[in-house]
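User: What would this chain look like folded?
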Amino acid sequence: MKTKGRLLPALLLACAAAWPARARDLTAFQLVKAGNQYVGVQSKDKVVQIRSEKSVGSLTPDIWYVVYYDPDATFKSVQVKFGAGQEMEVTHPWRVLEMATDAHTVMDRAKLKVDSDRALAIAKAQPLLKHLDLKAAQLCLQNGDEGPRWKVEFWAAKLKNPNDQADVGAVYISPTDGSVIENDLHPDKVD
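Assistant: Here's the prediction, encoded as structure tokens.
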């Protein structure tokens, strides 16, 4: 009986300790589902953009923004900001420029098969990045002229001063099949 009495508190403590790590590692598509509870019924699952801030301390970003279509808002959008997997803020951003492009149209969720973690892995595997000490990444999924695409930007340690970072470019990935659409990398910027 004494073992059971000690086992339950230990199990609860282990689960509680694991929760922040799990919440922090939510992917972009998981954040869309989490964000649905903070937007109106008319906006649920109607994503127009998902983007992160530049990551800090790892390649996985902690701060994400999920922008949903909102027919009742002035600029037709509502944005949910997440930090380490937790909702931080709900706003109606000024998306004036996006209204003139395809960046304001709702993405077809059935075609979005490549989540942020996989897009990051595909981009990181590019041969031009193989020998770089990658320090940070920033991701954005949005519509363009040819439909939605992931943009994965990277920063790497500079050769002369490894504490400084250089923007080494971006890789564009199809969210439908994971293929690389465009490679705009500049590894020479670490010199």
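Confidence is low (pLDDT under 50) at residues 7-23. If you want, I can go into more detail on any region.
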